[in-house]
Every structure is written in structure tokens, then in C-alpha cells.
Design goal:
This protein is α+β, with helices and mostly antiparallel strands. 38% of the residues lie in helices and 25% in strands. The strands form five sheets. It has a seven-stranded mixed sheet. It has a five-stranded antiparallel sheet with strand order 15-16-17-8-18, with helices on one face. Strands 11-12-10-13 form a four-stranded antiparallel sheet, covered by helices on one side. The longest helix is centred in the first third of the chain and has 33 residues.
């Protein structure tokens, strides 16, 4: 009987323990069920954190992003970390290819384009971060391609060599770029490249003191609607020569060099002048005055600004005075910077004197012009032709691209209106800024690759990068096919 009681007690204990475990386990399961699932944060909050993080990482990595190849490796590594399919094509472009969200295989495809250039990565960082943010954080979309197109010395190498089948048919294209105006454009500037040349004649110097004058702003800049913020060393030194002449400071010019390409603003320029020893004091005073004025005006914008002069060995020859006079007239009258604005104050046309050289006794000046108005572009061309004729130098247009006019595509208006609605839905801003953009962009080149695709150019600034990223994601989501009820 005792054994039976022990067995019964043992059974009761085991039963109680099992019941307790079931209650604990069940309670845990119930408590898990009752705890509310944490909702995803709003898209605005996600983008604010992620976009800032992506851009900061790019800026912090600038030392290693010193070549276009290293930038491509960075983007490929980032994509691998985010499990985004990516590849590098033969030109060095980086291509992200994302499949459509489930059930959205027949939704029109989206292509997002951003350029990169090792020389100007601090500027490119905004556009890259926006494109990366869209690629990672878009949840509902059709087929999506993000193209990071390589640029080299202001040349759209990646766009020019992009395979036509890279851009999917039947979709739409967002082209991202740097702009001082935060706006969406369906028209962007045409481009002209002018080469000015002349065979120089030389003679022995008449004066006995030689000075090398150098002006450097540190880095070159892309030629775009920020041109009126730029200090051009070539034009500045050319104006200095004109000032010497107008104030009767007699001099001879031995050499003049500056810049690398008309496609970017020059980062530096230098020239060697020869003066009479009796005019040294006057020369030094003028140099000090000019240096002080330049530094007071531009030092805040150009921390690496360097404006110097130094006495150098007397050259054996100098440029003939007739050629020097013509060069001074050419430099003084040549167009550089903002050419004209519209009634709203937006730049409609601009020019850039990007390179000058007197190497091998031959004057060469490279100039670029941009305009979103074909008539004004023709006017600039004719003006340069006239100036060069008066200054007895040769002029020729060596390269040109037409302006991009997206309004010629019948699908552009629907695309623009839809994106405007998405911008409003995301930002709450009733007035999405829009208008023509004077900058020469890759849009006209891309249009040749995808003739039927409507293209919008989005000018990315520090203020609008979040709004454009969110609006693009919102637009893609709004294009998705709605599931049947």
C-alpha cells in the first residue's frame, strides 16, 4: 500500500510539473502573440538615416576613391553587402539590376542614372547616395536598373559607350545630376567646343626683368549652372594683362599656360612677363593690389587659393608684340561664365575658357559653351567667330551636341505629371520646381540609346536629395499593377 501511495504521489508531482511547464510555455506563446509587431518606420525617416549614412561613407572614403576603377569596386562591394545583383561593364560603368517585386513583373521598368568621376567625387556623392538609397529601400516596383556611369575629365564616357540594350524598353529614366537649382527638367543644354589657335612669332626681349605669375584655386569644377560661383584663373590672368596695358605698364609676354580641358573649369594658370627694371615698383604694387582683391573675394570659397609671383630667369625670346596685343584683346573680349539669364534669373547660356597654351610657339585656347536655347547657342558661336576674326586668330567648332528636348517625346508629359504627383504625395510640397537646365547632361546621349523612353533630369542639391529619393520610390510604387480584388 505504501508503494502504491508513493507511485500515486510521484504521478501527481510529475503531472503538476508537466502542467506548470505547459502553463509557462503557453503563457510565453500567448505573450508573444499579444506583443504588438513593431511597425517599419516611415519612408521619410528611413531615407533620412540611410541617405545621410551612404553619403557620409562616400565622403569618408574619398582617399581610397582616387580612381574610377576604385569607385566601381566600392559600388560593387556595397551592392554585394546589400545583396543587390551588380556588375561592371567593359567601359567601367556599374550596373545594378533588381528584379520586379512579386507580382510586378509587367509594371513598366525604371532606370536611374547617376554619374561618377574620381576628380569630383565630393560633388558626385549626393547623386550616388540618392541612387543607392533608391536601390536599397524601394519595396514595390517593376524591373529596376540603376546605372552608375563613368565620366572622365568632363566627358560622358560611360553614356557614350553604354550598350543600347542596357536600358530596358517600355520604361522611363531618371537622370540625376548636380545643380544649383533644385528642379526637374525636360530640357537640358546643348554643347559646343571651340578651338582657337594661332601660330605665334617670337623676338628677343626688349626689357630686362622677368616674373612668373601663378594663380591656383586647388581643383577644377564641372561646367554647369554653378559657373557664376567659379574663379577662372585663365580669364583672371588675361584680365590682369589687359589692366597692365590700360594703365601703361609696359610688358612683354613670354608664355601663358593653364587648364586641362574645356569640359572642366581650370584649376590653375601661369604666365611669364618681362618688364623694364624701371617699372618694377609699379608692377609689384599692382600685383599686391590684385592679389589682395582676389584673396578678399574668393579665399572663403577656395581655401587652397594660391596667387603668387616670383622673379625668374630672363627668357631668350618673347612673343612678338603684335601677337601679344591680339592675345590680350582676345582674352579681354572672350566670353567666360554666364552669358545670359532669363527673366526668372535662371542661366540660359554659359561659356568656359578651360585651357590655354603657348607650347611650341603655337597659341591654343579651348572653350566650351552650353545653352538650353538653340538660338542663343548659335549667337555664342557667331560671337566667338567674330571676336577671333578681329583678333587675327583661327576659330573652329570641333565638337557639338544638340540640346536635350524631352518634350518631343509624347510620353514625357504623363511621366512628368505622375512624378509631380508623387513628389507632392511624399513631400507635401505643392510646387515641385521645374524648368530648363543650362547644363550639358548625358540626357541627349541616353535618348539616342533609348529613343522611346521619356527622361527627367533631376537637379540634386543638398536640400533636395531626400525629397527626390523619396519621390522616385513613391513614383515607382504608384506605377505598380494593383492586385485584383
Amino acid at each position: 500500500m505504501i508503494k502504491g501511495l508513493i507511485k500515486n504521489k510521484t504521478f501527481v508531482v510529475i503531472f503538476i510539473l508537466l502542467a506548470a511547464l505547459l502553463l509557462i510555455g503557453g503563457g510565453y506563446a500567448i505573450s508573444k502573440f499579444l506583443v504588438p509587431i513593431e511597425e517599419e518606420p516611415p519612408l521619410e525617416e528611413v531615407l533620412k538615416d540611410k541617405l545621410a549614412a551612404y553619403e557620409t561613407d562616400i565622403i569618408d572614403s574619398l582617399v581610397s576613391l582616387d580612381t574610377n576603377q576604385n569607385i566601381a569596386k566600392y559600388l560593387i562591394g556595397w551592392a554585394a553587402n546589400k545583396e543587390i545583383p551588380a556588375k561592371v561593364d567593359e567601359t567601367g560603368n556599374v550596373i545594378f539590376s533588381l528584379k520586379a517585386s512579386e507580382g510586378q513583373e509587367h509594371t513598366p521598368p525604371t532606370t536611374i542614372v547617376a554619374g561618377f568621376n574620381a576628380e569630383h567625387m565630393e560633388i558626385c556623392a549626393k547623386e550616388l547616395a540618392v541612387a543607392m538609397c533608391v536601390a536599397k529601400n524601394a519595396k514595390n516596383h517593376g524591373p529596376l536598373k540603376v546605372l552608375f556611369l563613368v565620366e572622365d575629365h568632363g566627358i560622358y564616357t560611360g553614356a557614350l559607350n553604354l550598350s543600347a540594350d542596357t536600358i530596358p524598353e517600355g520604361g522611363f529614366i531618371f537622370c540625376l545630376g548636380d545643380s544649383i537649382k533644385e528642379k526637374v527638367s525636360t530640357i537640358t543644354g546643348g554643347y559646343g567646343h571651340f578651338t582657337i589657335s594661332h601660330k605665334l612669332k617670337y623676338e628677343k626681349p626688349s626689357y630686362d626683368k622677368a616674373y612668373k605669375i601663378s594663380l591656383s584655386v586647388g581643383v577644377s569644377q564641372p561646367v554647369n549652372d554653378r559657373i557664376d560661383e567659379v574663379l577662372n584663373p585663365i580669364k583672371t590672368l588675361g584680365n590682369l594683362l589687359a589692366n597692365f596695358k590700360s594703365t601703361s605698364l609696359f610688358f612683354e609676354l613670354a608664355s601663358f599656360y593653364g587648364g586641362d580641358s574645356e569640359k572642366v573649369t581650370p584649376s590653375k594658370a601661369s604666365m611669364t612677363v618681362v618688364i623694364n627694371e624701371s617699372d618694377v615698383e609699379k608692377f609689384l604694387q599692382k600685383m599686391e593690389e590684385d592679389m589682395e582683391e582676389i584673396q578678399d573675394t574668393y579665399l572663403d570659397d577656395y581655401p587652397e587659393l594660391s596667387y603668387t609671383y616670383e622673379e625668374v630667369e630672363l627668357p631668350s625670346t618673347v612673343i612678338r608684340q603684335t601677337d601679344t596685343d591680339n592675345l590680350i584683346s582676345l582674352m579681354y573680349t572672350s566670353l567666360d561664365g554666364v552669358y545670359t539669364r532669363n527673366q526668372d534669373g535662371n542661366i540660359v547660356a554659359l561659356t568656359n575658357m578651360g585651357k590655354i597654351s603657348t607650347k611650341d610657339r603655337h597659341l591654343t585656347i579651348e572653350v566650351s559653351a552650353m545653352s538650353c536655347d538653340e538660338t542663343i547657342m548659335k549667337e555664342i558661336t557667331e560671337t566667338y567667330e567674330t571676336i577671333c576674326g578681329l583678333c587675327d586668330v583661327t576659330y573652329r567648332c570641333t565638337e557639338s551636341y544638340p540640346l536635350f528636348d524631352g518634350t518631343l517625346n509624347p510620353n514625357t508629359k504623363t511621366f512628368f505629371d505622375g512624378f509631380k504627383d508623387a513628389y507632392l504625395d511624399y513631400t507635401g510640397d505643392l510646387s515641385m520646381s521645374s524648368g530648363d537646365n543650362v547644363s550639358f547632361t548625358s540626357c541627349s546621349i541616353l535618348q539616342e540609346k533609348a529613343t522611346n523612353a521619356p527622361i527627367l533630369y533631376c537637379g540634386i542639391s543638398a536640400d533636395t536629395k531626400y525629397g527626390f529619393a523619396g519621390a522616385i520610390i513613391t513614383y515607382m510604387e504608384q506605377q505598380c499593377v494593383k492586385p485584383e480584388e
